[in-house]
């Protein structure tokens, strides 16, 4: 008769469920980012850019960062054999997200423009009030750092970056829910 370690089997079952949930949530985020980019900004449908007419729209740079970040999570959660190509792609994707977030912060800090989208699309009046928020840029920087070091998940830097990004995101979400203009 074979001995079955019930706690270990329960932990494995829980890990599988959480992995599937993370995969599903990442797929939803990627789909939302893609819809905002293609239907909202490229297609010109304002209803696909924002939750409500009174709220700010998701900027194209924000939608692109959501697409890239969630794609990196999806690749990380897909049970493939890790190889050098996948690791290089993950680092390149993380670097792209970090570069977009840093560029957004730099444009907002060093120019009268509201962010990267206003700089890239300055001929269009569409981006006058819609931009990637500073907290969003910082959260994407933390996410890029955490995803760049995803192979070393147990490290304190990964944990700190992921936790700080989550806290900033939750504060922004709570502010958004309560319509706090400062956030």
Give a summary of the structure in a few sentences:
The chain has helices spanning 6-42, 60-77, 84-110, 116-120, 134-148, 156-177. The chain has 183 residues and is mainly α. Helix 1 (6-42) runs antiparallel to helix 2 (60-77) and helix 2 (60-77) runs antiparallel to helix 3.
Computed over alpha carbons, the radius of gyration is 19 Å
Secondary-structure element series: HHHHHH
Task: Report how far apart the termini are.
Answer: 60 Å
What structural class results from the helix and strand content? mainly alpha
Low-confidence stretches: none
Number of strands: 0
Q: What oligomeric state do the depicted chains represent?
A: single chain
Q: Fraction of residues in helices?
A: 55-70%
- What characteristic shape results from the CA principal axes? globular
Number of domains: 1
């Amino acid at each position: 008769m074979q001995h079955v370690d019930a706690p270990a089997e329960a932990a494995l079952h829980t890990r599988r469920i959480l992995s599937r949930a993370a995969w599903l949530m990442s797929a939803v985020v990627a789909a939302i980012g893609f819809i905002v980019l293609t239907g909202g900004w490229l297609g010109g449908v304002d209803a696909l850019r924002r939750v409500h007419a009174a709220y700010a729209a998701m900027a194209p740079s924000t939608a692109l960062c959501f697409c890239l970040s969630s794609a990196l999570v999806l690749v990380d959660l897909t049970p493939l054999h890790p190889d050098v190509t996948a690791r290089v792609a993950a680092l390149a994707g993380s670097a792209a997200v970090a570069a977009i977030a840093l560029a957004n912060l730099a444009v907002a800090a060093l120019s009268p423009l509201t962010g990267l989208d206003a700089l890239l699309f300055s001929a269009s009046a569409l981006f006058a009030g819609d931009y990637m928020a500073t907290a969003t840029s910082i959260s994407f920087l933390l996410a890029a750092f955490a995803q760049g070091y995803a192979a070393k998940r147990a490290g304190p830097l990964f944990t700190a970056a992921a936790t700080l990004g989550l806290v900033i995101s939750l504060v922004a979400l709570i502010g958004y829910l309560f319509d706090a203009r400062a956030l």
